[in-house]
Write a sequence for this structure.
């Protein structure tokens, strides 16, 4: 696994269009379920917060028009999923899961695709024959908060490749590359073989990149594995798992890193890559 692939980097518009279409197909129907009272309350308070910011900082018409032009560009570039997932979702996730006793979660991000191929309780994610990156063997167990084994649990895994690119959102990568769904055995254990992903920058050639440049921010996300862990009668856990020593663990552009989500990999016994142990505790659904 030493070869280096050079798939063309996706443009912001291409990635944005893919993320927007994926959101429409997976989650758009849920919008109609939001009660009008909540829409009215939240919309009013968000607008009031914007009005307060304008008054506090004496926003000029030039600044307002610059904002208006930028908002139009976000839509034209299809970057609303990226903008909201990078700068807003981490607070929604924090509020939505603050009651949990089990594992900490974090944001889903814009690159999730459902129905990845089933790989059993011990297997490898689909990958190219010469997939670049350090081999990683990850073992873990899924239990409930009372310690009982969840033998029907599923672990969905997806992550970027060694160039920071995601399959189905970048050209030239096989459809399900580095995406897989794993079951657990009768004792709740799983073993996944994959490769260590790379840190990456979110797309910077579109509207979000213009905001980053204008504000003097950086665009980096630390290396991470995405997971969704599910079991009957339990709350879905969505998380990202990080690696120690990454320079952007402390200043992730998406503010998604939590200490509980940092792995502790060790060199593999055979000298080929790394191994890591990390399991999940799920919260039962409250009646």
């Amino acid at each position: 696994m030493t070869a280096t692939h050079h798939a063309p980097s996706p443009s912001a518009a291409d990635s944005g269009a893919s993320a927007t279409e994926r959101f429409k197909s997976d989650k758009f129907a849920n919008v109609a379920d939001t009660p009008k009272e909540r829409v009215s309350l939240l919309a009013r308070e968000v607008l009031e917060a914007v009005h307060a910011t304008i008054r506090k900082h004496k926003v000029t018409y030039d600044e307002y028009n610059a904002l208006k032009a930028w908002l139009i560009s976000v839509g034209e570039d299809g970057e609303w999923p990226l903008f909201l997932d990078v700068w807003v979702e981490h607070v929604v996730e924090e509020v939505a899961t603050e009651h949990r006793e089990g594992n900490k979660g974090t944001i889903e991000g814009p690159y999730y695709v459902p129905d990845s191929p089933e790989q059993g309780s011990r297997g490898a994610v689909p990958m190219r024959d010469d997939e670049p990156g350090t081999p990683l063997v990850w073992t873990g167990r899924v239990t409930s908060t009372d310690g009982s084994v969840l033998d029907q649990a599923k672990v969905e895994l997806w992550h970027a490749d060694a160039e920071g690119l995601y399959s189905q959102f970048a050209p030239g990568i096989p459809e399900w590359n580095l995406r897989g769904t794993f079951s657990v055995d009768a004792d709740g254990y799983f073993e996944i073989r994959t490769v260590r992903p790379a840190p990456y920058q979110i797309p910077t050639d579109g509207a979000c990149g213009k905001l980053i440049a204008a504000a003097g921010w950086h665009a980096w996300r630390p290396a991470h594995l995405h997971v969704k862990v599910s079991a009957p009668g339990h709350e879905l856990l969505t998380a990202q798992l990080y690696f120690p020593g990454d320079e952007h663990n402390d200043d992730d552009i998406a503010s998604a890193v939590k200490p509980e989500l940092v792995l502790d990999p060790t060199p593999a016994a055979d000298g080929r890559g790394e191994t890591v142990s990390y399991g999940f505790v799920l919260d039962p659904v409250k009646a």
User: Anything to note?
Assistant: The helical segments are 12-26, 36-57, 61-76, 80-87, 89-96, 207-215.
